[in-house]
């Protein structure tokens, strides 16, 4: 595909109005062609106006038509998979084979959401028929369905340049809900963003949908994101990135004349607890497995486990030695951007200043933005006195927390802020302690894994990728998995309607054969 560097606003390729940028290859520190356009508030307004104009037609597409559209995006992604992975590898320093896997995952998500749409369960259809004879007053016929919330602004993430970016799960779930999307491309991978955006636009055109169903904008600072969040025609926002960035956008949206939901996914250290019998039986194996997962994506994944808590005792030395060995063997690998690399280096310095001790370091970096792995250690009591030590250092580092007994382990668990996930390693004799730990973790995480790690993540109906603040800004929803569509839906009740005026989904006789509850059954 010939990259033009344009903004993609509806069907139009729009040239720069606010300057341009080139992509950076973080492995070589060299810029890559071509120039990519920056836009501003006027381009956001153009995209939002088109999205609003597209809304009525797109949100009323039949389930079959919308599912076919999502499948076309998947097919288009399959067609460009190799080219997309190659460009994303140049722009991120991530291995091409891994990025091919990401592209496959992205296409699969669109197919999974096509299935969600066809099944129609997301509409949560409910019918409470009229009760004309009811005393003391009759009940009217009530019918409910969920509809799309309106045009949605999506901030593409930096760390998974395909499956959490332009053609990622946020876009797939919003389009599945019937919501037009305006995508704010991340400047860390502009070429990969353009390839993905063009596959989505192609499907919009193939299916004869209104051009405003999808647009992609890009900007050279905060102004473009602020314009998106402020725009009165935007009705919801999703964001994956830093806590300060996410919170700035969240607060901004609440100050609008019409506040809107902002679903941010920001930070998580995914604490891992090893209970005593498991430590004694499998300390080395768990330590090795933990570091393997911590190193995924050079530690730049939301589910990387980065804090491990274990009680000193049988198996502790084996655990510690295995972690040290694995870290010291880890080659330094290119991080996503100079900014993320710089924040990682600073984060490690801050950890040391706060009293954590470096007990192992990976192989030295041989490139400017290569992240060197690190393992730090701290006593449980120290961590309890320095809560900032439990904050995320985004990159290939881990903190081993040595606690003296079960009570201290539970106290450390209570000290954590909200998390996307937590893991417990246990054997049968550990169950009693696990029962005490469980309610503490339930209050603080969206997902609890036993005798495994949060990686790899499945995308299913039961997937939860969310959690209490600051993991996300709204713990009631997940940003991955089939129920992530719920972020973009709202209920509408139809009362006393003649059958021919009802949406087909709610008509007598259930013409579309969809799952519906009738009188709660
Ligand atoms: P980021 O700096 O928060 O940026 C994410 C996106 O939001 C970018 O498109 C950025 O635009 C935009 N943005 C950020 N703050 C904004 C503001 N105040 N107003 C308007 N737009 C704003 O995140 P990042 O660049 O992906 O990575 C930086 C740090 O985020 C990492 O070091 C890491 O700590 C964290 N992070 C965490 C996760 C996770 O899953 N836990 C994932 C990714 C990143 P510009 O690029 O144009 O500024």
UniProtKB/TrEMBL annotation:
KW Oxidoreductase (keyword) present: yes
Keyword Oxidoreductase attached: yes
Pfam family, one: Aldedh
InterPro entries: Ald_DH/histidinol_DH, Ald_DH_C, Ald_DH_N, Aldehyde_DH_dom, Aldehyde_DH_Superfamily, ALDH_KGSADH
Superkingdom of the source species: Bacteria
Keywords: Oxidoreductase
Residue ranges of domain Aldehyde dehydrogenase in the record: 17-459
Signal peptide interval: none
PANTHER family (alphabetical): ALDEHYDE DEHYDROGENASE-RELATED, SUCCINATE-SEMIALDEHYDE DEHYDROGENASE, MITOCHONDRIAL
UniProt protein name: Aldehyde dehydrogenase (NADP(+))
């Amino acid at each position: 595909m010939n990259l033009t560097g344009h903004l993609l606003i509806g069907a139009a390729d729009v040239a720069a109005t606010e300057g341009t940028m080139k992509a950076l290859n973080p492995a070589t520190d060299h810029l890559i062609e071509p120039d990519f356009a920056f836009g501003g508030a006027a381009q956001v307004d153009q995209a939002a106006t088109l999205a609003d104009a597209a809304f009525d037609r797109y949100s009323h597409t039949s389930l079959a038509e919308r599912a076919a559209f999502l499948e076309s995006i998947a097919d288009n992604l399959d067609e460009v998979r190799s080219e997309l992975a190659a460009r994303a590898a140049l722009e991120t320093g991530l291995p091409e084979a891994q990025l091919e896997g990401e592209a496959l995952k992205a296409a699969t998500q669109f197919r999974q959401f096509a299935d969600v749409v066809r099944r129609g369960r997301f509409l949560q259809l409910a019918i409470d028929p009229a009760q004309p004879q009811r005393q003391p007053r009759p009940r009217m016929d009530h019918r409910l369905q969920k509809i799309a919330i309106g045009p949605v602004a999506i901030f593409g993430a930096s760390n998974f340049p395909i499956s959490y970016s332009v053609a990622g799960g946020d876009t797939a779930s919003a389009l599945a809900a019937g919501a037009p999307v305006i995508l704010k491309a991340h400047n860390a991978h502009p070429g990969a963003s353009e390839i993905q955006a063009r596959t989505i636009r192609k499907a919009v055109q193939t299916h004869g949908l209104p051009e405003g169903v999808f647009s992609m904008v890009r900007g050279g600072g905060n102004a473009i994101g602020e314009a998106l969040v402020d725009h009165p025609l935007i009705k919801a926002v999703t964001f994956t990135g830093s806590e300060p960035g996410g919170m700035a956008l969240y607060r901004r949206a609440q100050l609008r004349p019409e506040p809107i939901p902002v679903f941010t996914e920001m930070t998580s250290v995914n604490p891992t607890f090893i209970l005593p019998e498991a430590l004694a039986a499998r300390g080395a194996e768990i330590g090795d497995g933990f570091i393997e997962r911590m190193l995924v994506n050079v530690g730049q994944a939301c589910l990387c486990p980065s804090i491990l808590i274990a009680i000193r005792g049988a198996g502790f030395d084996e655990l510690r030695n295995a972690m040290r060995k694995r870290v010291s063997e880890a080659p330094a690998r290119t991080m996503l951007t100079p900014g993320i690399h710089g924040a990682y280096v600073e984060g490690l310095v801050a950890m040391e200043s706060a009293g954590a001790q470096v007990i192992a370091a990976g192989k030295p970096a041989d490139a400017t933005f290569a992240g060197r792995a690190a393992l730090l250690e701290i006593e449980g009591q120290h961590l309890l006195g320095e809560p900032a030590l439990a904050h995320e250092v985004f990159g290939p580092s881990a903190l081993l927390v040595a606690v003296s007994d079960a009570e201290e382990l539970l106290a450390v668990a209570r000290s954590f802020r909200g998390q996307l996930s937590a893991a417990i390693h246990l054997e049968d004799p550990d169950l009693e302690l696990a029962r005490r730990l469980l309610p503490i973790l339930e209050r603080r995480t969206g997902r609890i894994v036993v005798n495994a790690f949060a990686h790899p993540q499945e995308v299913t109906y039961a997937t939860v990728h969310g959690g209490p603040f600051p993991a996300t800004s709204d713990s009631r929803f997940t940003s991955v998995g089939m129920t992530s569509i719920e972020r973009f839906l709202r209920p509408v009740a139809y009362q006393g309607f003649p059958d021919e005026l009802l949406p087909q989904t709610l008509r007598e006789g259930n013409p579309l054969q969809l799952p519906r509850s009738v009188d709660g059954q």
